[in-house]
Design brief:
This protein is globular. Strands 1-2-3-4-5 form a five-stranded parallel β-sheet. It is of the alpha/beta class and about 130 residues long. It is about 30% helix and about 20% strand. The protein has one domain: TIM Barrel (Alpha-Beta Barrel).
Length: about 130
């Protein structure tokens, strides 16, 4: 959204003829627009989600965050509450750390809305 400030009209025009996907860190509100898929990847420490209409949340999880289960649970509950109506919730191990991924898989039964995700841009080395 930082790159789209002042260009939202262009996004809306593109959405009439194309599928448009944008990602935001959640600190800037996203105008409501039909045909735009919004992914929010909230960042610590606030894990803020200003856009009230999003389709997908990607939360990067570190070993440190998993080490404090009370804080981890609080953050997941906050993100779920702030993103009511969201369809997809992904927990992504930071840097695709396999140990963190194993712990996420173990935690998933306790957080039924959430799924394991991967940071594909890092796997594919996209910059």
């Amino acid at each position: 959204m930082l790159q789209l400030q002042g260009r939202w009209q262009m996004v809306q025009e593109l959405a009439h003829t194309r599928e448009v996907f944008i990602e935001t860190n959640g600190t800037i509100d996203v105008p409501v627009s039909v045909g735009v898929w919004v992914t929010c990847a909230p960042k610590p420490p606030k894990y803020e989600i200003k856009p009230r209409w999003i389709q997908e949340v990607k939360l990067v999880v570190t070993e440190e965050l998993l080490g404090n289960i009370d804080e981890f649970t609080r953050i997941l509950q906050k993100v779920e509450y702030d993103s009511l109506g969201c369809s997809y919730y992904y927990l992504q191990p930071c840097d695709n750390d396999l140990e963190v991924a194993k712990h996420i898989v173990e935690a998933l039964p306790y957080f039924p809305r959430w799924r394991l995700g991967l940071q594909l841009h890092k796997l594919l080395d996209v910059r």
